[in-house]
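ok here's Glutathione S-transferase N-terminal domain-containing protein:
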Amino acid sequence: MPHQLYIASGACSLGAHVVVRELGLPVQIVKVKTRVPESPIHAVNPLGRVPALRLDDGTVITENSAILPFLADLAPGTPLFAPAGSVERGLIQSWIGYFSAEVHAGGFRAVNRPERYSRDEAAFDGIRSQSRATLKQTVAHIDRHLAGQDWLVGGRFTIADAYLGVFVRWIARFGDAFSDLEALNGFRERYLARESVQAALAFEAQE
Ligand SMILES: N[C@@H](CCC(=O)N[C@@H](CS)C(=O)NCC(=O)O)C(=O)O
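and the structure:
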């Protein structure tokens, strides 16, 4: 059996999915549902989360921050990543860490899952609005970095950009509240124009 990447429609697994398509890797994309007990994801990742990468020997790698570099390393020398020990590799991994910890876990999760932060339902709206304000500050940092450049590191599309696309798409749901982040809005257009992204989104939209 080939390596299998477990993904879900609209989820943060889009970044890894895009990397598989950018690199033309021999990795089977397996679309699953999350948050339902009968989902096959539970047999792969005990946390029930995507992305999860099941290797051909049965080993399962979870976490975007591990899966994205692992996939890129399946194509040695790819411009989507950078050589071990290089400054660019450090910068790409720095952004991936920021997206995983600060933007996803620290930002979106509190906006989307206030029940994880309080048992008091009356507190949910307050958690959502404060978290949204915090998230805005977090993504404004990315917006400032992107001003005047197309991609995050080295003037080319990398695995960090593949991952950032997830959050830039999610931000669009906030409409006007985030529309002043011009560099990020430009990034979203460049991201959505990529063939790999369009193919990944079309696959995810299929029934
Ligand atoms: N830290 C993990 C987060 C993964 C994660 O939260 N995935 C979400 C989709 S964006 C999921 O599968 N949620 C289902 C659930 O929590 O039950 C990573 O970066 O890979």
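+1. The CA atoms of residues 47 and 120 lie 25 Å apart.
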